[in-house]
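Predict both folds.
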Amino acid sequence: MSPNVVPASPLVDVARGIDWTQPVTTALSDAADAQTRALIDGFVHESGPPPARFAWVVFGSHARRELHCASDQDSALFWQTEQAARTSYAKDLAVAVIDGLERFGLRPCDGGYMADTWSYSLEQWQQILRERVDAPTPDAVVDADVFLDLRQLKGALDVAPARAVLARGAGSPRLMHGLATAANSFPPPLHAFGRLPRGTVDLKKTGLAPIVLLARLYGLKARSGAVGTDERLADATKGGVLSEELTGRLRQAYAFLTRLRMQNQLRQIDAREYVTDTIVMQDLDDDTHDELRDAFKAIKSAQSVTSMTFRTDL
C-alpha cells in the first residue's frame, strides 16, 4: 500500500475525535504510547521474561509527541547486554510491536530506523552515538538528527547514559554546523515582497520540517533536555540562544501549521484522497492565507539568524 493511502485505523479514529482546544497531536501520541506499551506487555506475557533488561525507545514525531495521520514509526531497542540484543527474543519483540503498530495505523519507517534493525546493548549505543556526535560525516549528521529525538517508552533499562552522549553534541562544532545546514535546507516558499505561491504548498517541507530542525539545533545549543519542538524553542529562549521574539513567532507558526495539516489530512481521509502534507492555496480563506505568510516569514527570519550564527553559507 502506498504510504500516502491511509486506511481506516484506530489512529485515524483518534484523530477524528481530537479536542481542537488542545495541542492537536497530543491525543494521537498518547494513543500510540498506550498501544506500544500494550504490545510490549502482550509479547512479554506470551513469550516469557526478556533475557536481560531493555528499553523500547521511539524517535521522530512519536518521540516529540507530534504524530499526525500519515506518520510512520521510528524505534529502537536498548539492551543491558550485547548478547541479549542479538537474541531471537529481541528480534521477535521488535517484529511483534512493529506489526502491531502498523495495524494501529503507523506504517514502518521509510528510512529504516526500526527496532528490528537498531537493537544494540546500551554500551554499543553509547559508542554509536559518540561516533555521530564527535566527528560526524554528512551521513552521521542525518543519524544524529534522528537520534536527538529520543524518548523511552517502556522497559527497566535506564538510557540516560545514551542521552548524556547526545547532549555533548552542543560542544561539537562539526555537528552543530551540520544541524544548522540541515535546518536551512528547507526554505519557505516566499516570493518577492513576501508573496505566497499559487497552486500547492507542502506544509512539511516548507514549514514544519524547518521549524523542527531549528528547534532541535537551538534546543541542543541551549542544552535542553526537552524532545518536543515547542518545549525546545521555549528552552532556547531561556538559555539565551534565540530571542524571545523570534522563538515566540516560531512557536506560533508551528502550532498553526500543525493544526492546518491535521485539518487538511482529515478532509483528505473523508474524501478518500491520498493523505499528504500538501495544501491547495486557493482553498484557504484570507485569514488562513495571512497566517501562513506570517509563519513562513518567521521561518525565513530564523534561518537568516542561523546562517549568520553558524556560517552555513561557507
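Second protein follows, with its predicted C-alpha cells after the sequence.
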Amino acid sequence: MNTHPANSITLIDTHTHLNDDKFALDLDEVIQRANEAGVERIIVCGYDLQSSRDANDLACKFDCVYATVGVHPHDAKSYDKEVEDAIVELSSHPKNLAIGEIGLDFHYDFSPRDKQAAAFEAQIDLAARLDLPIVVHSRESNPEVMNILRSRAADISGGVFHCFSGDSDFAKSVLDIGFYIGIDGPVTYKASQKLRDVVGMCPLDRLLIETDCPYLTPVPFRGKRNEPAYVRYVAEEIALIKGLALHDIASATTQNAMRLFAGRAQEAA
C-alpha cells in the first residue's frame, strides 16, 4: 500500500533491518511513515538465518517490503553446509532480491578472518549459481573484499557496497567492477567530508540510498532510532552535493535500485 501524495517523490530504501527487535512494537506505524514520506519500496536485509527468515516474513506481510538473505561476517563462524542449504531455500522466496548482507568485518572480528573469507566466498559462489546480486558489508577490510570480488567478478550478477566507507580512489575501484555505492545517514554528518567527496565524484547512475535502520540515523534525527522515512534526508544531502533537485536524485536512485534488483523486483511487483 502506497499512501504518499501523488505529487511526492518516489524513493527506495535499499538496506534496512526492520527485522530488528527495535521495530517490534510499532512496525506498522514505521511502514506508514515511510509510505507517507514517499518511500515506495523497502528492502529488509538478513544477516543470519533467523533474520533472513524474518526478512522473508516481512516481505509477505507488507506489499512494499522486499528481502535479502545471507550471513553477515559477524556470524561467519556458524556458516556450514546446513546453513548454506537453508539460505538457498530462503533465496527462492519470490520477493527475495539478493544474497546479503555478506562480506568482511575486520573492525570487530566477531568471527575469525579465515572463517569470514570462507563464508563470503561461499555466498558469492552461491549468488552466482542463483543469478542474484550481492549486498556487500566491508568494514576496515576494503582491500581484502576487493581482492575476493575481483577474483570472482566474471560470475557475479552485480552488487552494492552497502554503507560505503572508502575514499574516492576505492570508490573508483568499486565502480570499475560494475558495483553500486550505497549511501547512508553519515553523509549528513559534519565529519563525513570524505564520503561527500565520494558522492560528488560518483556518477548518479551508480548511487543507491539506504538507511541501515535502526542504525546510522541522519541529521536532524541523529541519536534517535533510524527508520526508512529518513532515507529522504540522505537523498536531500546527495542533491545538495550534486547541485541537483531532490526529484532528480529520487528518480535516479530508484531507477538504479530497480536495475540492480531487476529480475526478482519485476517478477514480484
